[in-house]
Write a structure and sequence with these properties.
Length: 115
């Protein structure tokens, strides 16, 4: 399993970013995908998740209405569109997949939101 995130960066509060996660090494179309984040000194937390065919999504309460998770199974890629960003969204964002009874993670991409 290989997951490679991209799209992070520095943005002002109220701005937007779109994260991408390119997946390989497993049957992407058959697995739910998730975005997690970890801020300094805090535990990793679920941000959003999407089912294998994209028919169902769920979000952390803190991002509902601002973030949108989506996937393109033809491209083996999952996205996280982040709008109305807040300083408290600052974290390393990780793409995750639960494959073969274990979690696999990408290297993470830093998102920093300035006030």
């Amino acid at each position: 399993v290989q997951l490679v995130e991209s799209g992070g960066g520095l943005v002002q509060a109220g701005g937007s970013l779109r994260l991408s996660c390119a997946a390989s090494g497993f049957g992407f179309n058959s697995y739910a995908m998730s975005w997690y984040r970890q801020a300094p000194g805090k535990e990793r937390e679920l941000v959003a998740a999407i089912t294998s065919v994209g028919g169902s999504t769920n979000y952390a309460d803190s991002v509902k209405g601002r973030f949108t998770i989506s996937r393109d199974n033809a491209k083996n890629t999952v996205y996280l569109q982040m709008n109305s960003l807040k300083p408290e969204d600052t974290a390393v964002y990780y793409c995750g997949a639960f494959v073969a009874l274990r979690w696999s993670w990408g290297q993470g991409t830093q998102v920093t939101v300035s006030s």
